[in-house]
Structure formats: C-alpha cells, structure tokens
Design a protein that fits this description.
about 270 residues, alpha/beta, TIM Barrel, 8-stranded parallel beta sheet, binds flavin-adenine dinucleotide
Length: about 270
C-alpha cells in the first residue's frame, strides 16, 4: 500500500482515517512517497513515522535526482536511526526549471550508494515498468536498466500500474530470462476518477486499454457507475495476477481506503 504526504490539516485527517481502515487488511508494509528533489522530505518522514503505528512496517520512498550525496547520506542516517529497515529507491522526476541533476543520474546510482555506505541495513525496493518507462529510448534498454538495479543490490521491485496483465507477465519473463529472481510486485491503481486517471496515465506512460477508456467515457459524470465498473475490473485484474503467482499486490491508495477495501473484498488472496 502506498500513501502520499498530505499538505493540509484536512488531508492529514483523511490520511489517518484511511490508514486506520486499511490497517485492518493485515498488510506487510505501507510506504509513503517522496516529492521531487526532496520537496516533501519532512512530510515523508512524518507520515513514515505514522505508518509504523498503523502497519507492520512503515517504508519511506527516497529519490535522488537533483540531490547531493551529503544530503541523502544524512537522510539515510536518520531513517536508519529511526529504525526504518526498508526503502523504496527511485530516481524521481523533477519539474521543469528545477535545475541540474545533482550528483545522481539514475536510481541505480542511489542503490549502489546505499549499499556502499550502509551495507545491508536496508531492504531496497525499486521501480519496474511493464509497459516501458516513458523516457526510455527502447523497451529492451529499459529492461536492461531494471536488471542493473537488481544486480546493484535491490531486494525487490514494485511496478508502475497497468491494466493489461500480459504486460506484467511478459516483463517478469523477460527479466527472469536475464537472471532476476527477486519478487516483482504489481502496482495496482484503483479507478475512481476517469479524468484524473487519464492525466496521470499520460504522464507516467501507463496505458488505459481502449475498451476501459471508452466505457469510462460513456459513464460521463456518473461517479457511481465509474466506481462500480472500476472495482469490478481492477478486482478481476488482481485475481488474475494472484492466480498466476504474482508475489503480492501493491496498491496506490491515493490516501483513500474505500476503493481498496472494496477491491480486496472481491478477491481470494489465498489462491
Ligand atoms: P530509473 O531506474 O533511473 O529509470 C529512469 C529512466 O532512466 C528509464 O527510462 C531507464 O531506462 C533509464 N535508465 C536507468 N538507468 C540508466 C542508466 N544507467 N543509463 C541510462 N539510462 C538509464 N517519484 C517520486 O518523485 N517520488 C516517489 O515517491 C515515487 N514513487 C514511485 C513508486 C513506484 C512503485 C513507481 C513505479 C514510481 C514512483 N515514482 C516516484 C516515479 C519515478 O520516480 C519516475 O517514474 C521516474 O521517472 C523514474 O524513476 P526510476 O526510479 O524508475 O528511475
């Protein structure tokens, strides 16, 4: 399960309500995102601390693009001293006009840095893209870059969301053929708001299949129909992934509990 650091008092209450409800699902861990260039550093730490009180494990994300080694070293020391033992390690995206790339170019550089400076103190998760990272010059190159992150010391991966299970199965096969044995957990994005999802998907390169897009368009402003349709197709996707041996599911919660509770109530997780 993934949360983001809320920016307002109302957002904090919504986060806490959602975390409380979702804590009843018995998750392995819940993580919290880290804003571009460290823009949510304090918020990420505050929410990661909160997550520890709701879930078995609270996991901060950390991204490196635009950052200096010294500042990330200090942050990692702080995470370590506060007992965080797992991190989601990313390159991150920088908004235009944010300046240079700092001392790290890619997530693999941060994975290497953490292993060099902190040994095996942290379990490291990295990002994977079953439909290709939008900036990658080719799919095969992107797959190779993912394999490099694993070889540099990642313990597992969480994927970008997708609605086409075959893209995930194909990706897992491709990286297995290149020697990767670490778990690759599918990222699951509930569907509750078509316009927001379409905007997100455009920027992160996740495809909404035509039949889903057309159906959602037809529902127009009927939020209830969109919600029910979203629950149905996303729970079917989750069941298909679980039945085919996926090592777990990682939900992008958007700090909302109900869609995930409704999806999970429809799937048999023990298959
Ligand atoms: P990388 O692994 O560095 O890959 C980025 C691009 O560079 C790819 O095209 C890759 O093919 C290429 N590349 C990689 N290595 C090399 C190399 N050695 N040489 C040349 N090219 C290379 N963003 C945030 O800002 N904060 C978050 O908390 C956050 N959480 C996320 C969680 C998950 C599960 C996922 C899937 C994404 C998350 N993101 C987050 C978004 C992520 O930061 C962006 O997708 C970003 O564009 C790429 O990050 P990465 O870690 O995959 O980068």
């Amino acid at each position: 399960m993934e949360f983001f650091p809320p920016r307002t008092g109302e957002g904090v209450s919504r986060f806490k309500n959602s975390a409380k409800k979702l804590s009843k699902l018995g998750l392995n861990f819940a993580s919290v995102t880290y804003g571009a260039g460290g823009s949510t550093k304090d918020g990420t730490l505050a929410i990661a601390r909160e997550l520890k009180s709701f879930f078995k494990e609270g996991v901060p994300h950390i991204s490196c693009y635009g950052s200096k080694k010294k500042s990330l070293f200090e942050l990692l020391k702080l995470y370590d001293s506060e007992g965080f033992s797992r991190l989601v390690v990313l390159r991150g995206d920088l908004p235009s006009g944010f300046g240079g790339s700092g001392e790290f170019k890619n997530a693999v550089d941060l994975v290497r840095f953490i292993r060099k400076e902190f040994g095996n103190k942290f379990k490291l998760e990295v990002a994977a893209y079953p439909e290709k990272h939008p900036q990658a010059s080719s799919f095969l190159e992107d797959i190779q870059h993912f394999v490099e992150k694993v070889n540099a010391g990642a313990d597992g991966a969480i994927t970008q969301y997708f609605y086409n299970a075959d893209s995930y199965f194909q990706f897992v096969n491709e990286v297995k053929n290149r020697g990767v044995t670490k778990p690759i957990v599918p990222g699951i994005m509930p569907i509750t708001n078509f316009k927001q999802l379409a905007r997100f998907s455009d920027s992160c390169g996740a495809e909404i299949p035509r039949w889903i897009k057309e159906m959602l368009k037809d529902f127009g402003d009927d939020r209830e129909k969109i919600y029910q349709f979203g629950i149905e197709i996303v729970s079917k996707l989750c069941q298909q992934l679980i039945n085919s041996g996926s090592p777990g599911l990682h939900f992008y919660s958007m700090n909302q509990a109900q869609p995930i509770i409704d999806i999970v109530s429809k799937i048999d997780l023990k298959k």
